[in-house]
Amino acid sequence: MSKPTLYGIASSRAFRSIWAAEEMSVDYQHVGTSFSGDSKTPEYLAVNPNGRIPALDDDGFRLFESMAINLYLGEKYAAEIFPTDPVARAKTWQWSVWGISEIEPLQMQIVIQKLFMPEEKRDAKVIAGATKGLARPLAVLNEALSNQAYLLGDDFSLADLNLSGVMDLFNMIKFDVSNYPNVQRWLGQCYGRPSYAAAKAVGSQK
User: Fold this and answer.
1) What pTM value is reported for the model?
2) 5-80, superfamily in CATH?
């Protein structure tokens, strides 16, 4: 039986899955795969026909989409951070989907302007509008964390990894969350985990 293989790089959505594998101590192989040429080869398209990253090949079982990969890894390898209780598991799904529906689209508007556009061509209105739009979901998250350390209670779980993994781009765009102290505290706790640093190191490899 071969090791699971994860394709992608840290500066992409693949980071979430690399972090999950590191947190779960999965014995996996990492193949540094970039956005462009690497992900468009016939060999890679056989794994992910979308030509995007990340992708997983687990002994012939092939899967794409970072959240699907993380939930699969949790199911197979990490009962300690992916709860079996149906209520807690539903909350894990909730926060994972919430992150890619409520945070990521607005976050990506800022990423595109700040990281992919020349400074003279950046649209300040887009950045301002997305920043304003993020106030509502961040307030929701701040309230959810008001009386507990993590999304499911006292302990770090896959819900925290998935959502904070989505929000990792806040670091790249220097997004200020100081108006949301519970969110700021929670992100610090999530990003302070040894697995986070390990994933950044692995994901930067080609």
Assistant:
1) 0.95
2) Glutaredoxin (3.40.30.10)
Mean pLDDT, rounded, for 88-109:
97
Buried b vs exposed e over 65-104: b needs ≥16 C-beta within 10 Å? bbbebbbbbbeebbeebbbeeeebbebbeebbebbbebbb
For residues 29 and 44, what is the distance between their CA atoms, to the nearest angstrom?
15
Q: Which position has the higher pLDDT, 206 or 158? A: 158
Q: Which amino acid is at 15?
A: F
pLDDT (0 to 100) of residue 36:
78
Level-2 CATH architecture, domain 86-194: Up-down Bundle (1.20)
Torsions phi, psi for 13 (to 5 deg)? -65, -15
In the numeric block, the tokens 């990003």 are attached to 191
> How far apart are alpha carbons 149 and 126 in whole angstroms?
33
